[in-house]
Amino acid sequence: MEAAIRSALARRQSDLELRTELEALAQRPRFRSFPWLWGPALHVRDRVLFRPLILSWLAPVNVTASGKLFDPWKSEYAAALETWLSDADRADDVAVFRKLYGWKLQGLGKKQEEVWHEDVVRRFRGAKTRSARHLELSKVEQLHLRLDEETALALDTVDPEAARPFIRQHLPFPANTWSRPKKPMEMWSTYRERLFARGDTEQAWTVYRRLVSEEAWRQDALALTRSIQEPEALVRALDEHHPEFAPTAAADVFVELVERRGRDVVPYVLEHLRSVFPRWAGPRGKNAKALPELLELCRVRGWEDVWGAALRTSATEETFDTEVRKLVKDADRDEQVARRRLLQVAGAGAEWNLPGLGFARVLPLTDATAVAMYERFPELVHGPFRMHVSSGWRAAYPELVARALEQRDEELLDFIASRAATQPVPEHGANKRQKEWTRVLEALASHYEELPKEGGVFARRAANALGAVPAFSIWDFDSLLSRNRLARLFFQRSDDFYLADPLAVRDLLEAPQIHVQALAFRLLGRDSERARAVARLNLDLLQASLLRPLHRRTRLAAFGALANAALHDAATARTLLPRMREAFALPDKRYPKEALVELLAKVLMRWPELRGPSEVPRVFSASTKEATS
């Protein structure tokens, strides 16, 4: 790689040619390990033309030609790198300077934060205007580094308004987080006093919530219960003081607050119950300290709302299952109260949402508790507790499945089958969990195989199950088919039966799981009049596959279904042709355009009257050519 880069830089060629060659080299391994070699040279040639390439491939991990790691800022290449850094600084190229500056700081090890503090203050003081100060802070922005109070005070002295968001972004993490320092962080008392003096209470409390220790927070919270008598004001003050990161002793503090002020603090406790979470020690974990005391306190006082929320949000699986089992048994004494309390604890306890990805914490029931609830409250198992009996890698629910089969409970069986069909569990295994899964899969597969195929009975039930399969729940489809009998039945062995019921096929097309949609595409792409007729009925769903993102294999299957729909009649083809032509403009490089050309050609061959001016074939004979000349 080093030889290839040096050869490209030494060769006589235009800057555009050099950029093209380097972009090709960048697709090979190790190119990003040599920015010390190509970076300064490209900057000197044309910093604007090569800027996108620099920003895309500049990385702080560098190696020599022999593959050894080294710091180029402490080598013979340091002068060229320093020149590059200075040029980016003078040109106010924030993106390039920030990358180079962070690269340089990384080589300082433990001293990088100290040097960063000095640079931040020096640059901020040297800027003459507020816009210049914002620019300097943007240049030295390093998200992983934290400020100290001395640096924050220095910035605040120069320009409080400009420094405010930067200080907030770089507050230290408290001592009780995963990144805790060697000694606990001290509260920035001087900075907070200055903030309060000028009326910036929002920033002052932000600093408090980030840096407060657990013991200081506990003392402050208890002091508020003595100094504030009005309930709403107390809740606002407690919210203001609540630490940014969940304290490990939150349950203890909640218990003390409840004992002192009773129902007055319930809104605050409910808002911050997620601060109480199980400690994941051992195979099942254990409850947070003082959680059982909080649950008992709420039960004695009759606070079903707090008790239910705390149990659902903060308890371990074992505690949750035990409480639910007690409630089911208590139904013998007072069914109405038991039902109400069960409804209080049902549902997701917490959610974590990221762009395009979300997680929900749902506590599962054991098989025995699920069976007991099903026998006493079957409507709860069908409704709010369905998520708590969702088969997963930790629970197969063989007894619940057996009871549902005895009761011929189609709704519950279809739901459990939708989860069971996604589990790549061996059909024969040695441990208890594998044996349970084998029992469940055998029972469900036998049940669906015995359903009548006439009248669409099997198709309707199988489509109901597949339509309930969650999106992104299948990761290795080929492995699943080889290890799950129920999945093979649904995805491979029932094609003819699905086509007998058009509504079942439409349910498959509308399913959230892409492998289920691919099954529908494959069915509608079969070479049969039945498949073409059903494809025509689902034109509104099929045409979207031309423009939506799909993997190549799935898109080719969708093309087969589209071809069947377009070949059914001219009206359908007339509707689809504009969408096919629009798809050629998609920028996706992996889009199978050659297959799209084939699809378009089939349709135009079948319906020549739909050809556009540029799609009419022109045939030139030898005599025509001579007459023209």
In short, what is this structure?
With 629 residues, the protein is mainly alpha-helical.
Q: Could you list some keywords that capture this structure?
A:
mainly alpha; single chain; flat; 629 residues; two-stranded antiparallel ribbon
- The first-to-last residue Cα distance is 57 Å
Number of helices: 37
User: Which shape, going by the Cα principal axes?
Assistant: flat
% residues in beta strands: under 5%
Mean pLDDT: 91
Total number of beta strands: 2
Low confidence ranges: 176-182
**Percent helix among the residues?**
55-70%
Query: Helix- and strand-based class?
Result: mainly alpha
Report the major sheet.
Answer: 2 strands, antiparallel
**Quaternary structure annotation:** single chain
Report strand order across the widest sheet: 1-2
What would you report as the Rg, rounded to the nearest angstrom?
33 Å
